[in-house]
Amino acid sequence: MFNVTNQELSINETQTMERNCTNLHSVFTRQVMPVFYSVTCVCAFILNGFAAWIFFRVPSTSVLVVYLKNMVVADMLMLFTYPWRVARDLGYGGLQLKLIVCRYIAVLFYLSMYTGIIFMSLISLERYFKIVRGTSNVSSLLQRVTVGKVLALLAWTVMIICMLPNSILTNQPIPEDYYCMELKSSLGQHWHKISVHFNVGVFWVAFLLIMFCYTSIACHVYRSYRRVQQDSSEAGRRSNRRIFSLLAVFVLCFVPYHICRVPYTLSQINDCINNHFILFQIKEVTLFLSSLNVCLDPVIYFFMCRTFRESLLQKMSSVKGKNRRLRNL
């Protein structure tokens, strides 16, 4: 009665592992996270809608404006994915909605996120050459609007080429219960791993580039004001606000996620290792921090772009003036 064969034990262990790999969600990811995403979606829709309304009334007369406009587009595309994710996590739509999220929505989310990261690094590079290397030939080249548009198009093209196969190769029959990796073909799983490592590489290159550029800018500004012996307190505060607004958003939103991204991907590929569930929970929390980027990017627009800031303040003063006139009627 107690005689259990090695084959039976192996089958039971395999079935247990498969159940653990499939049932990765917890009460936190099923009930709490959708609330967080819903609140973020509403706030981000208001902020980015207003930012888009201002930006796309502003002509692209500088490279900075070109990059910031593309960041707005990336944020709006990223924001579009949130309602789909919330509906899936709440259990609506069944297997078909889950398939749409796995095959299209998740790909669009990561495409938008990493394209936005590239534009953050391009902004820091443009600022560096304009402020620190303003007299160089490279600086004059990078300040051309045409060059900015070409680099923007190149960024979108590279990311689409990298991410689109993840959608195309998610083409396996739908089982009764599954997680997204099971829908990928063998080639699709290999491409998924390659694209994740590529995206993580993009992030860390962008992170190092941003740190170098803004450290150099801060040192250059400090030396300039020391050299002319002026009171640099106000100018220094303005410079610090511009520098640390982008750095703070970048570090808060993206660094935690990219610390755990590669271990989690390896746990997906390696037939579900023991800590896959824990890595999934950590990945979901840090991924939510990345999603907060769409709420915080308008802070970058305000501090980095004088045209955006002046347009925003003008609109606010116009609204206040109208309200004042209505009260006086």
From TrEMBL:
Give an example GO molecular function.
Answer: G protein-coupled purinergic nucleotide receptor activity
State a GO cellular component annotated for this protein. Answer: plasma membrane
**One matching Pfam family, short form?**
7tm_1
Span-the-membrane segments of this chain are: 35-56, 63-84, 104-125, 146-169, 201-222, 243-259, 285-305
Q: Which residues form the G-protein coupled receptors family 1 profile domain?
A: 47-301
Q: Which keywords annotate this record?
A: Cell membrane, G-protein coupled receptor, Membrane, Receptor, Transducer, Transmembrane, Transmembrane helix
Q: What is its main location?
A: membrane
User: What compartments host this protein?
Assistant: Cell membrane
The family note in this entry says: Belongs to the G-protein coupled receptor 1 family.
This chain belongs to which protein, by name?
ADP receptor-like GPCR type 1a
